[in-house]
Input
Amino acid sequence: RRKVMRQFARVGRKLTAASLPVAFGAMFQKAYGQVPSQVLDVLNFALTQEYLEIEVYTTGYKSVAFPDMDSKVAIEIVIDHENKHAKFLQDTIRSLGAAPIAKPKFDVTGGFGSGNGPFK
Output
């Protein structure tokens, strides 16, 4: 019974998360009639931050030998979460009738090129 309840809770969280971009879009449009550019600026800034975090963790993941499987899995989970954050922001921006900004190029190697990363 506990297992079924845990699975039910997981499905509920996923459904809630999936509906949030639409809810935010509707909320902003009801409150303002149209979305102020400052709201989109803040959302795009947050999206840029998520893009940076994805780049840092992905580059680090590819550039380091992990001491154990737990460490590797932990970083994989973080990368997955950061990608979900970016998708959430992209979906929210689209639901407001705007286009999310494209991912900029980042150099997280400290200027030392490939093979170096933020975890070294």
